[in-house]
Each structure stands twice: as C-alpha cells, then as structure tokens.
C-alpha cells in the first residue's frame, strides 16, 4: 500500500477520471489504473466501477479515499515538521485561507514574512470555508486563516484579529434601505459571509430579493453599482467607503463581530509557529486566550516562540 498508489486513488477521487488523474500526477493512465487495481487486490473490495467509457469510485472506494487523503496529509505534515525542526527558516508552510482573508489580510503579511524569511517554502490555498477546514482536518494545511473553527475540527487557535461585518450599499440605495424589501447581493453557498448573511436575515424573519454573485470582489462591485446591499467585512471595503462609492447602512443589529482566527493542527510545526510569531507583530493580531473557542477547536493558547 505505497504512497504512489494512495496518491493515484486520491487523484482519481478528485478529478473523476483516469486521464485527469494521470495528468495531475504526471504519469501514464495505465500507471493510475495499475495503482488502483493493486489497492483493490490488497483490500479485497472493489474501489472503482465502470461508468460508460470511464470509471467512478464505489462507496468503498470513496470511503477509503478519505482515509488515503488523511494518510498522505500526515506524511506531508511529518515532512514539514521534520524539516522545520531542523531549520524553521527553511521549512515548508502550507497556508489555507478563505477568500476575504486571502484578499484583505494576507497580502501584506506574506510580503513582510517573505522579506524576512525568504527561504521558507510558502504555499497558499484559497477557498470557501468548508474547503479550508477540510484541508486542515485532512492534514493538507499547516495553518488556516478564517473565521471561528467549526465544531468537531481538532485544531489549535493560535491568534485572533478583530473583524467587523457591516451592511454596505450605494448611497442612493442605502438612503431608502428597508430590511424586508431592499435587494441583497450575496456570495455563493459555502461562504462564511453568506452563512452570516443568511443567519442574520433568518433571525429577523426577513426575505428580501437576493442576487448571488460568485466572488467577494463581484459582491462589492455589485453593491457599488446599486444592485443591492451586501454584508461584507469592513476590511474589504475601506477604499470604497473612503471614495464614497459605498456607505455603511444603518441596519438593525449591525455591525457583527466575526474575528479572524489563525488556526493550526494539534501539533503546529516550528515553521508554522515562526509565521504566527510574525503575524502577532502585525496590527490587530493578538494571541488566542482560553475561552469558548477552546472547547470548539480542541485546544488554544499562545504559540511558543519558534527558533530564529
């Protein structure tokens, strides 16, 4: 049950075809098929079945692919931990961030960190809330920047930064704002901001017209164009507010306090702690204190200073 065979199965699960899996792994299609066939023989249960001219994972294959993903993630995490322990300033760091954090919080942090630690091997995954927390759970990310960790995720909250969600709109639309009637522009389902907007409206039993746009930038642009009001991080609309293209709407119960969290796995690597120490020197970031998140995430605390 080699690493290469596990990677072939996970690639097949992710891409949905032998050809696409082979392209991802830079191997031949026959190599992917042979790897999956070998796993099937070892496990004694079918992992794939024919579907038309292609294949799909069986129920057993999908279950096993989930475990294979975690095994591969643990192997990568182990490599990162070993290399970081030897020299934190030259180790790998796999970051994952929700879109708003990647757009508004990370760029300056990454630029200043890169200037100080140019030999750290940085990788960044950007995606919706569900994706980044799944990456942490599967050991595919060393540090996540997002909102509060969901219940059941084994994680260590290392730092927090204030983040206000506000309702904004074009000045003319904001002047006539009515919670139940004014249209809203929203992110796609799966976004943390979308979940907050849905919960906010549901709590007030409001069902205004909604327009779903596919990115944070599109939502902000749509709000500025007068398509509707939007619930966004204040960090994301500073320029638009300063220029007068958007104004903060006086909506009931606003603003919402949704702090950013820097979250690692149960055993952060030395290179991860090096980045967190750098992050704590940036404006607004503070070490996590014990509190409600401790029970949700598994453990919290101030990161130990990394060498260097």
From TrEMBL:
Record-linked Pfam families: HTH_1, LysR_substrate
Family matches, as PROSITE patterns: HTH_LYSR
Region annotation Disordered: where it falls in the sequence: 287-308
Record InterPro entries: LysR_HTH_N, LysR_subst-bd, WH-like_DNA-bd_sf, WH_DNA-bd_sf
The entry's keywords: DNA-binding, Transcription, Transcription regulation
GO molecular function: DNA-binding transcription factor activity; transcription cis-regulatory region binding
Domain HTH lysR-type: 1-58
Comp. bias (Polar residues): 299-308
Biased composition (Low complexity): 287-298
Keyword DNA-binding among record annotations: yes
Taxonomy, superkingdom: Bacteria
Keyword DNA-binding: yes
Family assignment from sequence similarity: Belongs to the LysR transcriptional regulatory family.
Name of the molecule in the record: DNA-binding transcriptional LysR family regulator
Organism: Actinomadura coerulea
